[in-house]
Amino acid sequence: MSKASEAKKALGGVIKGIKVIKESITEIERDIRDVYYELGDLIQQEATIIIKIAPLHQIKSRYKNKRGAEYILARVDTSLCGLICLANGERWRAPVLVGDAYNITEEEFSHISASGEFTLIPRGE
Protein backbone atom coordinates (compact mmCIF):
# COMPACT_ATOMS: atom_id res chain seq x y z
CA MET A 1 0.00 0.00 0.00
CA SER A 2 1.38 3.39 -0.91
CA LYS A 3 1.88 6.22 1.51
CA ALA A 4 -0.85 8.22 -0.26
CA SER A 5 -3.33 5.33 0.22
CA GLU A 6 -2.36 5.02 3.88
CA ALA A 7 -2.76 8.77 4.40
CA LYS A 8 -6.15 8.71 2.65
CA LYS A 9 -7.26 5.77 4.82
CA ALA A 10 -6.03 7.51 7.98
CA LEU A 11 -7.80 10.73 6.97
CA GLY A 12 -11.02 8.73 6.42
CA GLY A 13 -10.69 7.35 9.96
CA VAL A 14 -10.18 10.83 11.38
CA ILE A 15 -13.24 12.13 9.50
CA LYS A 16 -15.33 9.22 10.83
CA GLY A 17 -14.08 10.00 14.36
CA ILE A 18 -15.02 13.66 13.95
CA LYS A 19 -18.53 12.66 12.79
CA VAL A 20 -18.94 10.39 15.83
CA ILE A 21 -17.80 13.21 18.12
CA LYS A 22 -20.19 15.65 16.41
CA GLU A 23 -23.11 13.20 16.86
CA SER A 24 -22.14 12.75 20.52
CA ILE A 25 -22.07 16.52 21.03
CA THR A 26 -25.53 16.80 19.42
CA GLU A 27 -26.87 14.10 21.76
CA ILE A 28 -25.30 15.82 24.77
CA GLU A 29 -26.84 19.15 23.72
CA ARG A 30 -30.25 17.41 23.41
CA ASP A 31 -29.83 15.87 26.88
CA ILE A 32 -28.85 19.24 28.36
CA ARG A 33 -31.91 20.86 26.76
CA ASP A 34 -34.16 18.10 28.15
CA VAL A 35 -32.71 18.52 31.65
CA TYR A 36 -33.10 22.31 31.36
CA TYR A 37 -36.81 21.99 30.51
CA GLU A 38 -37.35 19.37 33.24
CA LEU A 39 -35.72 21.71 35.77
CA GLY A 40 -37.94 24.55 34.55
CA ASP A 41 -41.02 22.37 35.09
CA LEU A 42 -39.81 21.41 38.58
CA ILE A 43 -39.16 25.04 39.48
CA GLN A 44 -42.65 25.97 38.29
CA GLN A 45 -44.16 23.13 40.36
CA GLU A 46 -42.21 24.26 43.43
CA ALA A 47 -43.40 27.84 42.89
CA THR A 48 -46.98 26.57 42.70
CA ILE A 49 -46.48 24.69 45.97
CA ILE A 50 -45.11 27.83 47.63
CA ILE A 51 -48.08 29.83 46.39
CA LYS A 52 -50.43 27.18 47.78
CA ILE A 53 -48.63 27.31 51.13
CA ALA A 54 -48.81 31.10 51.33
CA PRO A 55 -52.11 32.16 49.75
CA LEU A 56 -52.35 35.69 48.44
CA HIS A 57 -56.01 36.22 49.36
CA GLN A 58 -57.48 35.00 52.64
CA ILE A 59 -59.77 36.32 55.33
CA LYS A 60 -58.17 39.04 57.45
CA SER A 61 -56.16 40.31 54.44
CA ARG A 62 -56.33 44.09 54.07
CA TYR A 63 -56.55 46.07 50.82
CA LYS A 64 -56.64 49.65 49.62
CA ASN A 65 -58.77 50.72 46.70
CA LYS A 66 -57.68 53.33 44.16
CA ARG A 67 -59.21 56.12 46.33
CA GLY A 68 -57.12 55.02 49.33
CA ALA A 69 -59.98 53.52 51.38
CA GLU A 70 -58.90 50.51 53.40
CA TYR A 71 -60.89 47.26 53.31
CA ILE A 72 -60.62 43.91 55.08
CA LEU A 73 -61.49 40.59 53.47
CA ALA A 74 -64.02 39.06 55.85
CA ARG A 75 -66.06 35.87 56.08
CA VAL A 76 -69.65 36.99 56.55
CA ASP A 77 -71.18 33.51 56.54
CA THR A 78 -69.92 29.91 56.39
CA SER A 79 -68.64 30.10 52.79
CA LEU A 80 -69.37 33.71 51.91
CA CYS A 81 -66.66 36.37 51.86
CA GLY A 82 -66.62 40.05 51.07
CA LEU A 83 -64.64 43.25 51.38
CA ILE A 84 -65.67 45.50 54.29
CA CYS A 85 -64.58 49.14 54.47
CA LEU A 86 -62.73 49.82 57.73
CA ALA A 87 -63.76 53.49 57.74
CA ASN A 88 -67.53 53.04 57.55
CA GLY A 89 -68.23 49.29 57.91
CA GLU A 90 -69.98 49.15 54.54
CA ARG A 91 -69.36 46.21 52.24
CA TRP A 92 -67.91 46.73 48.78
CA ARG A 93 -70.53 44.48 47.20
CA ALA A 94 -72.64 41.43 48.05
CA PRO A 95 -70.67 38.53 49.58
CA VAL A 96 -69.35 35.83 47.24
CA LEU A 97 -69.30 32.06 47.71
CA VAL A 98 -65.71 30.76 48.08
CA GLY A 99 -64.23 27.28 48.33
CA ASP A 100 -61.80 28.07 51.15
CA ALA A 101 -61.81 31.35 53.08
CA TYR A 102 -58.12 30.83 53.95
CA ASN A 103 -57.08 30.31 50.33
CA ILE A 104 -59.22 32.44 48.03
CA THR A 105 -58.41 32.02 44.35
CA GLU A 106 -57.72 34.92 41.99
CA GLU A 107 -60.99 34.17 40.23
CA GLU A 108 -62.93 34.25 43.51
CA PHE A 109 -61.22 37.49 44.56
CA SER A 110 -62.05 39.00 41.18
CA HIS A 111 -65.74 38.36 41.95
CA ILE A 112 -65.40 39.63 45.53
CA SER A 113 -63.72 42.84 44.37
CA ALA A 114 -66.10 43.16 41.38
CA SER A 115 -62.94 43.81 39.37
CA GLY A 116 -62.33 46.97 41.41
CA GLU A 117 -58.73 48.06 41.75
CA PHE A 118 -57.59 46.75 45.13
CA THR A 119 -53.99 46.56 46.28
CA LEU A 120 -53.03 44.06 48.97
CA ILE A 121 -51.55 45.68 52.08
CA PRO A 122 -48.64 43.51 53.26
CA ARG A 123 -49.18 41.93 56.68
CA GLY A 124 -47.66 43.93 59.50
CA GLU A 125 -48.32 47.35 57.94
Would you kindly provide a written description of the structure presented here, covering whatever features stand out?
- By secondary structure, the chain is of the alpha+beta class.
- The chain is 46% helix and 19% strand.
- The protein is built from 2 helices and 5 strands.
- It has helices spanning 3-53, 106-112; strands at 62-65, 70-77, 80-85, 96-97, 118-121.
- Strands 4-3-2-1-5 form a 5-stranded antiparallel β-sheet, with helices on one face.
- Strand 1 and strand 2 (70-77) form a beta hairpin.
- It is rod-shaped, with a radius of gyration of 31 Å.
- The mean pLDDT is 85.
Intertermini distance: 89 Å
Q: What is the total tally of β strands?
A: 5
Radius of gyration: 31 Å
The succession of helices and strands, N to C, reads: HEEEEHE
> Which shape, going by the Cα principal axes?
rod-shaped
Please describe the biggest sheet, giving its number of strands, its sense, and whether it closes into a barrel.
Answer: 5 strands, antiparallel
State the share of residues found in helices, binned by percent.
40-55%
User: How do the strands line up in the largest sheet?
Assistant: 4-3-2-1-5
Low-pLDDT stretches are: none
* Share of β-strand residues: 15-25%
Going by helix content, strand content and strand pairing, the class is alpha+beta
Number of helical elements:
2
The average pLDDT is 85
